[in-house]
């Protein structure tokens, strides 16, 4: 029975004590102290007119909960602020790829790393995605793990049309567009649920390509081996899909808790 709105006084704190106190050797019983509005005698155990008569008394359980609000990965813009996933076979996408992020950023016009599987030592570069200075999206991938000659960098032809707030961004790489080339296409949307709007023109490059299957883990946030700025970011979701428009089963990583 929810008694929060009508019977719990907000003027007094809800005080919960649990665990060990004063370096005690045993865990003590938990306590919860709060002030109830009992003017009508609702919580008086001997009041026969109370709807709770006969139902409450000693040892009546009490539960206290706090709404957690929005769920996101909180990156304050500091060195090393990121979430990581160790390398795994499912992350080793070498052909068509579809990367999507839903983020809130304080400044979309600042250069900042978004996500990547990119490690310089040992030439373990697969791909990286970031927002370049003044707002365009930039996607880099390597065919052999090296920067030279293997890395290819493509930037959107226009910047993200927003300088602050929440926005979903997306990049797809078609490694073989059927016309002896490869195609990178950028998109934006209000959230990761869509609907997606193409960001500028698709970038077509001569020659088919591939993505190196590196041993680097997947990182979201401050990717140390991609030298870009750091600003405060909230990551609501990330999807890494094998194949363009990959089906639901290709969802490889999702932000589901606040960190």
Q: What is the strand and helix layout of this fold?
A:
Layout (H helix, E strand, L loop, with lengths): L3 H4 L7 E5 L8 E6 L39 E3 L6 E4 L11 E9 L6 E8 L4 E8 L5 E6 L8 E5 L9 E10 L6 E9 L7 E2 L4 E4 L11 E4 L11 E10 L17
Antiparallel strand pairs: 1-2, 3-15, 4-14, 5-10, 5-15, 6-7, 6-14, 7-8, 8-9, 10-11, 11-12, 11-13
Structural overview:
It is a single chain. This protein has 259 residues and is mainly β. It has one helix at residues 4-7; strands at 15-19, 28-33, 73-75, 82-85, 97-105, 112-119, 124-131, 137-142, 151-155, 165-174, 181-189, 197-198, 203-206, 218-221, 233-242. Strands 3, 5, 10, 11, 12, 13 and 15 form a 7-stranded antiparallel β-sheet that branches. It is elongated and about 85 Å long.
In short:
This protein is mainly beta and 259 residues long.
């Amino acid at each position: 029975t929810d008694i929060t709105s009508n019977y719990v006084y907000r003027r007094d704190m809800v005080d919960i004590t649990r665990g060990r106190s004063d370096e005690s050797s045993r865990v003590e019983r938990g306590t919860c102290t709060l002030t109830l509005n009992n003017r009508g005698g609702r919580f008086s155990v001997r009041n026969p007119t109370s709807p709770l008569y006969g139902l409450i008394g000693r040892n009546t359980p009490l539960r206290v909960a706090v709404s957690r609000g929005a769920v996101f990965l909180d990156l304050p813009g500091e060195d090393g602020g990121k979430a990581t996933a160790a390398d795994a076979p499912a992350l080793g996408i070498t052909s068509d790829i579809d990367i999507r992020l839903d983020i809130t950023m304080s400044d979309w016009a600042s250069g900042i790393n978004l996500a990547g599987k990119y490690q310089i030592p040992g030439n373990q570069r697969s791909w990286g995605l970031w927002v370049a200075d003044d707002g365009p999206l930039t996607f880099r991938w390597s065919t052999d793990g090296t920067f030279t000659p293997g890395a290819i960098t493509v930037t959107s032809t226009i910047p993200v049309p927003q300088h602050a707030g929440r926005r979903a961004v997306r990049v797809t790489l078609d490694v073989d567009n059927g016309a002896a080339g490869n195609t990178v296409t950028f998109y934006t949307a209000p959230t990761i649920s869509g609907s997606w709007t193409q960001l500028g023109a698709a970038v077509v490059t001569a020659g088919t390509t591939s993505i190196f299957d590196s041993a680097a883990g997947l990182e979201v946030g401050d990717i140390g081996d991609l030298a870009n700025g750091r600003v405060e970011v909230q990551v609501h979701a990330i999807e890494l899909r094998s194949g363009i428009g990959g089906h639901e089963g290709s969802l490889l990583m999702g932000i589901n808790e606040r960190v």
